[in-house]
Amino acid sequence: MDCPSEEQMIRMKLADLTNINSLDFDIVNRQLIVFHTDNYQQIFQRLENLKLDTSIIDSVSADNYSTTNYNTDRERKLLWQVLVINFFFFTLELTTGFISNSMGLVADSLDMLADSIVYGLALFAVGGTMTRKKNIAKSAGYFQLTLAVFGFFEVIRRFIGTESVPAYKTMIIISILALIGNGLSLYLLQKSKSKEAHLQASMIFTSNDVIVNLGVVAAGGLVYLTNSKYPDLIVGIIVFFIVGQGAFKILKLSK
Length: 255
What we know:
The protein is mostly helical. The chain has 2 domains: about 5-50, no CATH class; about 70-255, no CATH class. Helix content is about 70%, strand content about 5%. It is built from 8 helices and 2 strands. It has helices at about 5-15, 40-50, 70-100, 105-125, 130-160, 170-190, 195-225, 230-255; strands spanning about 20-25, 30-35. Strands 1-2 form a two-stranded antiparallel ribbon. Helix 3 (about 70-100) packs antiparallel against helix 6 (about 170-190), helix 5 runs antiparallel to helix 8 (about 230-255) and helix 7 runs antiparallel to helix 8 (about 230-255). It is elongated and about 65 Å long.
């Protein structure tokens, strides 16, 4: 459970089991507490099918079990805010990436798109129907995977071809703006002080994106120092690989 898509996979896999009362995710320690009636065999079998290295730590009686309520309107507002921020920077980085001839920016834009998809799925977790969420996950996953494959081929073509050196200033400036955008998203998520697992997982996901932004900034600096296209292409292919992995995780949501 190290990213929002894995949590969504678990929620969707268990969604139609009527003997489950609630799920309590501990993202940091990669643990899940399931409050349920009857035996846990069917629950465990479904979790095993996800291939997430599932094991049972303990099974005890929850005598003092009680559910907690969360302000869903506030949660929806927060998710819409971070979704809009990420989608804006997806559009900005994609456009400036092609203009500046930087595959690093294009790849980073798809990483922002992956975030937008995850936040969108999280929105549907707040009261959305299961069928609708699965259809959206499938469409989004295939779309993201198609873009990642296109990115890989484009990077290979540029490695072989005689492409011009990317505009390093644009790379650095836009990546710093994207870094600010991710920082704002992280601030909003932390400010909410929500204990909801999919929001805590989103904080981890956004924190990882900061590293990607810094990687593109560093690549821009190396392009300037070496006057070479290769630093940009190397960071581009690394990020495209990350985006491709994310797409496969999202596609698992639709099964």
